[in-house]
Design goal:
The complex is a heterodimer of chains A (about 170) and B (about 425).
Chain A lengths: L2 H6 L7 H37 L7 H22 L15 H36 L10 H23 L7
Helix pairs in contact in A: 2-3, 3-5, 4-5
Chain B lengths: L4 H12 L4 H17 L1 H15 L7 H15 L1 H13 L5 H14 L5 H18 L4 H13 L8 H10 L3 H29 L12 H9 L2 H15 L5 H18 L5 H35 L1 H11 L4 H18 L2 H18 L4 H17 L5 H9 L5 H24 L2 H10 L1
Helix pairs in contact in B: 1-2, 2-3, 2-14, 3-14, 4-13, 4-14, 5-6, 5-11, 6-7, 6-8, 6-10, 7-8, 7-19, 8-10, 8-20, 9-17, 9-18, 10-18, 10-20, 10-21, 12-13, 14-17, 15-17, 16-17, 16-18, 17-18, 18-20
The chains are: A mainly alpha (about 170), B mainly alpha (about 425).
Chain lengths: ~170, ~425
C-alpha cells in the first residue's frame, strides 16, 4: 500500500487522530507534486524564453535548486513511513525469524537515530545561516528558512521512524 | 591499520544486517570523520553535505528524467513500440524475442531506469511471446536483459550520478552511451539467434506481416522517436544543457500523455508523487554516500589505492580487470545506485591516474552495473520481472538470462578493446 492508497481508503468514520498520518502523507504528496510540476514548467519557460524571446527567466536555476532540495526533504517522511529506503536484504531474508526481529529493530533504531542527527545538524546549519543572513545570489531567496524547513521535515521523518521502532510486524 | 579499513568493515556489516543503505553509509561516514578530524569539524562537514547536496542545479535532471519515464510509461507508448518491432522482426526464428530486445532499447531511449524498462516491457512483450509459444526462460530472459539497457541508452539516471560524482560532462556521458547501447541490442539479438539455432522450439516464427502493416505499425513509434531526438539531439547539438533537456523531455512526455487522454488529475497526482518519492529515495542514498566518500577520502583510501597501483609492477590493464572483478562481486550483493555511489569516488582517481578516460570508464561502470542487474543471487531486474509475471519461477528467469550475460561479457570485451566505441560520438560533439 502506498500513501495514495492510504489516503483514499479508510477515510470514513474514523477519529481525526487515526486519519492524521494519511492526511499528512496526502498533504506532503501534493506539495512535492506541485513543486515537481513547477520545476518542470520553469525549465520549459526558461528554455522557450531564451530561444524565442531571448529572455531567459532570471535566476531560474536558483529556484530549481531550492525546489529540488524541498522535493527531496518533503518526500522523506513519506518514504520513511512506507519503509521504502533502499536496503540490502540478501542476508536479512535468509536469517531465522528471531534474528530477523532483532535486526529489524536495530535497523529501525539506527534509522530514527540517523534522521534525528540529520535534523539536528540541519537546525544548526539553519541557525548559522540566520546569523549570516545568507541568500541566493540573484533571487535573494533567504537560505535560513529553507534549512529550517529541511530540519523540520527531517524531524517529522524521525518521529515516523521512531514510531516504527515500536511496531512488531514487517509493516512500518 | 589504515583509517578506512574499520569503516569499510562496519559499513558492510550494517548493510548485510539490512540497515537502509543511506543510513548505514551516513552513520559510518560520520563516525569515521569524528574519529579522524574531531567532532566539531566532522559534524559541520556532515551538516553541510546534507544541506548542500539537494541544492544542486545539475542534479535536478534526476527527478525530471524520472518524471519523463513515468509519463511515457503511463501514456502506453510501450504497446505501440512493441507492435512495431514485432511487425518487422516477428517472422524470423526467435523474432519476437529479438523484437523485445529492440523494443527495450527503444524504450530505454526515453526512460532512464532499468527496472522501469524491464517492468514496462515485461507487461507488453511477455503475453505476446506466450501467445506464439515462446519458451518462458527465453522470453523472460530477454526482457530482464533488454531492460538493463535503460541505464545505458540515454537518458540514464546512473550516468547522471556518475557525472556528478566525477565532475564529467553529463551530456558527453549520455552521448557516449549511445553506440554501446546499440551494440547491446545487437548482441542480445545475436544471443536470441544462437539460442533459437540450438533449439528452434524455444522461439518459433511469428506470423507473416504485409509491408503496408509494417509501415503502419512504425508510425506508432513516432512519439518516442520525437522525444528522443528532442532530448538527446538537443544535448548533442548543444541546444540544451542536460537539465534543460530533462525538463523539455518531461514536458514533451506530459503533452503526449495528455494528448492520448492517459491523464486525469488523480493519475497526474500519482505520477508526480511517485516521482518525488523515488527522488527522495535516491537522494537519501546520495547524501549518505557523499558523507561516506568524505570519510574514505580523508582516511586516504583513494590515495592508498593509487599509490598501491602505481607502485605495483603490473600493467594498468591488469588493475582495470581487478576493478571490474570487484564490480562483478559487489554487483551480486549491492543495489546498482549504491554500488556506483560507493565505488566511483574510490576508483575514479585511480582510473584517472592510470591514464584512462573517465567518460569511457563511466560507460564501463554502467555496463558492469547492467550485468549486476541480471546476475544471481540479487539480479534486481529478475525480481522486478517476477512481480510482473508471478507464475514464472525465478530460477527459470535466471536460466534464461545466461546467454545474455555472455552477450554482455562480449560487449564488455569490445568496449575494453575499442574505447572509441564509447568515445567516438562525444569527440565529434566537440
Amino acid at each position: 500500500m502506498n500513501a495514495n492508497d492510504a489516503l483514499h481508503s479508510h477515510q470514513t468514520r474514523r477519529p481525526f487522530a487515526a486519519r492524521l498520518p494519511a492526511i499528512c502523507a496526502g498533504l506532503l504528496n501534493v506539495i512535492a507534486g506541485i513543486l515537481l510540476f513547477t520545476m518542470m514548467l520553469l525549465t520549459v519557460v526558461d528554455v522557450i524564453g531564451r530561444y524565442i524571446f531571448t529572455a531567459p527567466v532570471p535566476g531560474a536555476f536558483e529556484a530549481t535548486e531550492v525546489m529540488l532540495v524541498l522535493i527531496v526533504f518533503v518526500g522523506l517522511p513519506i518514504v520513511t513511513a512506507r519503509n521504502e529506503h533502499v536496503s540490502v536484504l540478501l542476508f536479512y531474508d535468509r536469517t531465522p525469524p528471531f534474528l530477523q526481529a532483532i535486526l529489524r529493530m536495530g535497523a529501525r533504531v539506527l534509522m530514527a537515530f540517523g534522521l534525528g542527527v540529520a535534523s539536528w545538524l540541519l537546525y544548526h546549519k539553519a541557525v548559522e545561516l540566520t546569523s549570516y543572513g545568507d541568500t541566493t545570489v540573484i533571487l535573494r531567496i533567504p537560505l535560513a528558512p529553507v534549512a529550517f524547513a529541511m530540519s523540520a521535515l527531517c524531524a517529522i521523518a524521525t518521529v515516523v521512524a521512531a514510531i516504527a521502532v515500536f511496531k512488531r510486524s514487517e509493516e512500518a | 591499520m589504515d583509517a578506512w579499513v574499520p569503516g569499510l568493515i562496519a559499513l558492510l556489516a550494517l548493510l548485510f544486517a539490512g540497515v537502509p543503505i543511506a543510513i548505514a553509509m551516513g552513520l559510518v561516514g560520520a563516525v569515521g570523520l569524528i574519529v579522524i578530524i574531531g567532532p566539531q569539524g566532522a559534524l559541520a562537514m556532515v551538516g553541510q553535505t546534507i544541506f548542500d547536496t539537494g541544492l544542486s542545479y545539475s542534479l535536478s535532471v534526476v527527478p525530471l528524467f524520472i518524471l519523463m519515464g513515468n509519463f511515457v510509461t503511463r501514456a502506453g507508448l510501450s504497446d505501440e513500440l512493441y507492435a512495431a518491432c514485432h511487425a518487422w522482426l516477428g517472422r524470423r526464428p526467435g523474432g519476437l524475442a529479438m523484437a523485445t530486445a529492440v523494443a527495450c532499447g527503444g524504450f530505454s531511449a526515453v526512460c532512464g531506469s532499468s527496472l522501469a524498462t524491464a517492468a514496462t516491457m515485461g507487461k507488453v512483450a511477455l503475453p505476446q511471446m506466450r501467445k506464439y509459444r515462446y519458451d518462458d526462460s527465453l522470453a523472460s530472459g530477454v526482457i530482464a536483459a533488454g531492460g538493463t539497457l535503460g541505464i545505458l541508452i540515454p537518458p540514464s539516471v546512473i550516468l547522471v550520478i556518475y557525472g556528478v560524482t566525477t565532475q564529467q560532462d553529463i551530456g558527453k556521458l549520455f552521448v557516449a552511451g549511445i553506440v554501446p547501447g546499440l551494440i547491446g541490442i545487437l548482441c542480445y539479438m545475436g544471443a536470441v539467434r544462437v539460442v533459437c539455432a540450438l533449439d528452434p522450439e524455444k522461439g518459433p516464427r511469428g506470423p507473416l506481416v504485409p509491408m503496408a502493416e509494417k509501415l503502419r505499425a512504425t508510425r506508432g513509434v513516432l512519439g518516442i522517436m520525437g522525444l528522443f531526438v528532442l532530448v538527446i539531439g538537443g544535448i548533442y547539438v548543444g541546444a540544451f544543457t542536460a537539465t534543460e533537456a530533462a525538463g523539455m523531455g518531461a514536458f514533451g512526455a506530459f503533452l503526449i500523455a495528455l494528448a492520448r487522454r492517459a491523464l486525469t488529475l488523480r493519475i497526474l497526482g500519482e505520477i508526480l508523487a511517485e516521482t518525488a518519492a523515488t527522488t527522495t529515495m535516491m537522494f537519501a542514498v546520495l547524501i549518505g554516500a557523499l558523507v561516506f566518500a568524505n570519510y574514505v577520502n580523508i582516511a586516504g583510501l583513494p590515495d592508498d589505492l593509487t599509490s598501491f597501483a602505481t607502485g605495483a609492477d603490473v600493467p594498468p590493464f591488469v588493475i582495470l580487470l581487478g576493478i571490474l572483478f570487484v564490480y562483478l562481486l559487489l554487483g551480486m550483493v549491492l543495489e546498482s545506485l549504491s554500488m556506483v555511489l560507493l565505488t566511483v569516488p574510490i576508483f575514479a582517481p585511480l582510473i584517472g591516474s592510470l591514464g584512462y578516460d573517465l567518460v569511457w570508464f563511466g560507460i564501463v561502470v554502467v555496463i558492469m552495473t547492467e550485468i549486476s542487474l541480471i546476475t544471481p543471487p540479487v539480479g534486481l531486474n529478475v525480481f522486478v520481472l517476477k512481480t510482473v509475471l508471478p507464475d514464472v519461477p525465478v530460477g527459470t528467469i535466471f536460466k534464461g538470462v545466461m546467454p545474455f550475460i555472455l552477450a554482455d561479457i562480449l560487449r564488455m570485451v569490445l568496449l575494453l578493446a575499442f574505447p572509441v566505441l564509447a568515445l567516438g560520438l562525444p569527440t565529434l560533439m566537440g
